[in-house]
Amino acid sequence: MVEALIFDVFGTCVDWRSSVAREVATVLPEVDAEAFARAWRAEYDPAMARIREGARGYVPLEDLHLENLDSVARVFGVRVPDRDALNAAWERLDPWPDVIRGLKALKRLAIIAPCSNGSIALMTRLARYGGLPWDCILGADIARDYKPRPEVYLASCAALRLAPDRVMMVAAHNDDLFAARAVGLKTAFVPRPTEHGPGQSRDLCAESDWDIVAADFKDLSRRVAALQG
């Protein structure tokens, strides 16, 4: 019996690429907004890697995003007039069309919460912007570490006072699911084949025998209901 579903957010629940590009286009009309958004996102994992590897203490994602914004602006040769305002673009990401209805259906079946590398503050503001109906906010901030470190998944389970096998990790990224399954969580894959744009070449399909492989969140809710019996 799955009692809780925890979700990757960036890419799985929300369309970061189009949403951030929209904000960049408003603030920096002289640059290729989508290229800037992709370059900004490309700094995400390297910035977290230093923390995961112990070379730096935990830093909330907003601060990493701001540091990464400065790096990308230098590469593009532009000055950002209000860095904090543009950095808040990550709090205004549009949900994929199936997400809100799917989450509401899933909420009737189990606890639902983000297990994101975003901070509690970022996830709360993003939920308010997009209408994401979480029961609570879990993830990196409570673990003081970043996925795919096992502590992040386990801290989320512990916060709910649930054994890992009572919790299902939902993600559009196979590496997220491999890490969650390695510490005992159930897994569900939902593809987002346009997350990185029309040329996306990874995470187009399930790369393992996940407990659920669903077409979208509405399909996920049907499959979870069937799993619950």
TrEMBL record:
| SUPFAM superfamilies registered for this protein in UniProt | HAD-like (SSF56784)
Task: Show the InterPro entries listed in the entry.
Answer: 2-HAD (IPR006328), HAD-like_sf (IPR036412), HAD-SF_hydro_IA (IPR006439), HAD_sf (IPR023214), PGP-like_dom2 (IPR023198), S-2-haloacid_dehalogenase (IPR051540)
**Membrane found in the keyword field:** no
Top EC group: hydrolase
Q: What is its EC number?
A: 3.8.1.2
Q: Does the keyword Cell cycle apply?
A: no
Q: Which Gene3D superfamilies match?
A: HAD superfamily/HAD-like, Putative phosphatase, domain 2
Please provide the record's keywords in A-Z order: Hydrolase
Q: Which family does it belong to?
A: Belongs to the HAD-like hydrolase superfamily. S-2-haloalkanoic acid dehalogenase family.
For this protein, the record's NCBIfam families field holds: HAD-SF-IA-v2 (TIGR01493), HAD_type_II (TIGR01428)
What job does this protein perform?
Catalyzes the hydrolytic dehalogenation of small (S)-2-haloalkanoic acids to yield the corresponding (R)-2-hydroxyalkanoic acids.
The protein's name: (S)-2-haloacid dehalogenase
Q: Which organism is it from?
A: Ruegeria aquimaris
